[in-house]
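queue> holo job accepted (FE2/S2 (inorganic) cluster)
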Amino acid sequence: MTRIHVTVDGVAYSDEVEPRTLLVHYLRQSLGKTGTVVGCDTSNCGACTVHLDGVSVKSCNVLAVQADGHEVTTIEGLAEDGQLHPVQQAFHECHALQCGYCTPGMIMQACDVLKDNPDPTEAEIREGLEGNLCRCTGYHNIVKAVQQAAGQMRSASSGSGETADATEAAEVSA
Amino acid sequence: MTITEDAPTAGPEIGKARRRKEDQRLITGRTRWTDNITLPGMLHLAMVRSPFAHATITAIATDEAKASPGVIAVLTGRDLADGQGVVANAWPITTDQVTPTHLPVAVDRVACAGEIVAIVAARSAAEARDAAELVDVDYDELPAVLDLKEAVKDEVLAHPDLGTNTSAVWTLDSAAQGSGTDVEDEIAKAREDGIVLEREFRQQRLIPAFMEPRSTVCDPTGEQMTVWTSTQVPHILRFLVAATTGMPESKIRIIAPDVGGGFGGKLQTTPEEFATIAVARRLGKPCKYTETRSESLLSGHHGRDQWQKLTLSARKDGTVTGLKVELLADLGAYVGVVGGGVPVLGAWMFNSIYKFAAYHFTVRTLLTNKTWVDAYRGAGRPEATFAVERMMDELAAELGRDPLEVREQNWIRHEEFPFTTVAGMTYDSGNYEAATARAKELFGYDALRAEQQRRREAHDPVQLGIGVSTFTEMCGLAPSRILGALNYGAGGWESASIRMLATGKVEVLTGTSPHGQGHETAWSQIVADRLGVPFEDVEVLHGDSQISSKGMDTYGSRSLVVGAEAVVRAADRVIDKARPIAAHLLEASVDDIEFTAGRFGVKGTDKGITMAEVALATWTGHNLPDGVEPSIDADATFDPDNFSFPHGTHLCAVEVDTETGKTTMRSYVCVDDVGTIINPLIVEGQVHGGVVQGIAQALWEGAEFDEQGTLVTGSFVDYTLPTSADTISLVTDHTVSPSTYTALGTKGVGEAGAIASTPAVVNAIVDAVRHLGVSDITMPCTPERVWKAIQVGSAGATEGERGAAAHFDDGAPNQDSPQPSDTTEGGAQ
Ligand code: FES
Ligand code: FES
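queue> job finished
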């Protein structure tokens, strides 16, 4: 057993873990952070995506001990002060989820894509989400949601953030 | 934290693009997947599975595993033999169907790789998995039959004790049932003076690959045993656990909590569920089993897997006179809950939207030593649609005419509805002309055809192909009487209850079991309109046999057309029950009471009372008419009279690089007619997801086994689901021909996309390279296969011979011969 110190969704934890424990299992089993899920055993599906020091990682592909001394954000810690993250809001507005199993990973990955590239083209969004599988949506609405969130985050950072046009955009396309 | 909701708008809820109620918890990680459930003292299970496709089990040594850290028990099939139940088939398609006994945990013999032979229960999942490695099983390998066409010969038997690999032969014949002429006559006539096309198509094996791996938690410690499980069919599971283990049904509670996709893959009662229940009961402890993705791909049932032999007869003017369908369908090692019923569901759909004079359908279902096969999105109907839509394109090519024009010549015109087809189904409504016209317009059909012509003439190495699929399907499983006539073991009704709470809130209990379809939202919209209550005041409860005690669950695009019809009827009963109470409170005659927009009013006055006020008055019971019970709650069970028949026109444009065989999708347009739309956002989402699953069958997916019967596409590395980078944005639109069979006019949409899109894509690819001598390409149409088809076509076809049908009579399918490296077909047994 190895002791690790890790901050998850803003809370500091200190735990003994087996060296082979994967980060995703540590999150789910030790911390009860069941919002992050497992979809495969080959690091292909991205369902387990979280942020490690602000960068997206597949938490099934990281050992818990590797997170020692680092900061992890999961889907459960994304909303701030009771306000959904713009990507979460856009997923809702654009109907970018059906069963929702891929959704936590997809949202975390989308945040990462937008952090690197605040104004991505459709192709760049599609490339950026390539490591996250969704069986329900055919990706169409996921791509739309990321585009919408991007627009909203850009206008928010330029000081004119408003949710109204985003909602309207989704309304029109429906 | 709250979602920023769209401002409430006036007007009916039905038709509004309501954002889903389900989303809030799903986008914040506040979910209840079965694997999230942890109970005090819970043990974790790991399965020991057979690596062999067919073998007898000679010995199982468990001592080492039992001594492993954290292990509580190791149980074999023999240990559990009493009371483990049986994995059942609910639909023996013929009375003499051959059905091998399917034990959850094998006792003497395994009939496919992945079958469970022993179970380890340990304090943690990791310890259980470690110990499972230590269980030492001795097998005597038996010959395995892995190829469908080999299985027909009965030389090697999947189950030697059964004496045959044929499970059943099921036939529908238009002459015999009086719904059309004799197909052999039509074919004979066409051979004399018409066109006869003979083709053979392969429906490859697919894996549903829902994103949430299946998981089951069983708590045997209460008075009722409670089972949480990742299933589409909690009610069916409850019945079958009771029926096959001898437990009283009343002692079993099944809960489907949040379920992460199904697509038919969770329309099953599984060995893993039965095994988890058996171990939990044996040990008297809560137990959890969650499969790995590799286990899921190997042991969850697969889909499709047919050889389709087709003979189409037509007059020289392009009028189709007959279609003869002969199928071989692989069931795998066992007959699943629907099993042979899957290809049978396609029997009414090969004639699709067309007016054929004669029709014959035969399916032979076969047992092999591969993973079992059962429902996968569309279940029988995608296979049928693929075959007929490929044939219509072949006919158009033979005639040298536009494929849409040939289809229109043969399809049912909108003024001909209701129309009884050659297969014997009566289609309620539709307008194929309207959907096709709209699709052509959105697609830019004529401009694309012109571009195609230019690129052909210019010998462009990248050729443009245009694919057409005009489909229909049957939704709304199913009228119970028809199911009875087909020997299905249950009814097809659906149940709903509405509870009117004292505070004016409304609880809707539905027997459907959604796992991504958004029933909580759509049912709320329907009830809000029906009862005139706010959308937000409706709470939809489902998926727990103690809450929604009756139901037939969710599959076969049945939930809206059967389940929501039950909801509507329950709502109408609430109104009926509330009416005399309202009259009493308003001191008016019942005959003078009008109910509109949630308010009971007295005709000709402005007196009135709201539904919520009636609910409160009923709850207090202080002032009710004599003899009226203090409840306006109501139940309804709806059994449909017929299926519903959505349809649509899908058009696909692809670019095929003739030098590399690579296909790139350029545009995809679909115009679906699913009847009345409750929520356009949800409908559009269902179409998107279905279309992409169908495209994936055409281009990427295929479950493949090696000669030993090992699944070689056993992980997401090899079983290649489409990614966001593989796919394009789709253009969707709708025409609306309300169903005349349902109160709401809905027709069902869950499977439409997957049914329609596969032939559109393959037709497009073939269309791109037909001038190079290609008339078919086996799915998935990988670059290698497309390239090979071009090589063979260019070498083989001399001008004028291209349209000639490759007859299957000589034993050679009209496609590239599968390579031993990429498939087992033809592999030595
Ligand atoms: S669980 Fe599939 S990538 Fe992590
Ligand atoms: S929403 Fe179901 S897998 Fe993406």
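queue> Helices of chain A lie at 23-30, 86-93, 103-116, 122-128, 140-157, 164-173.
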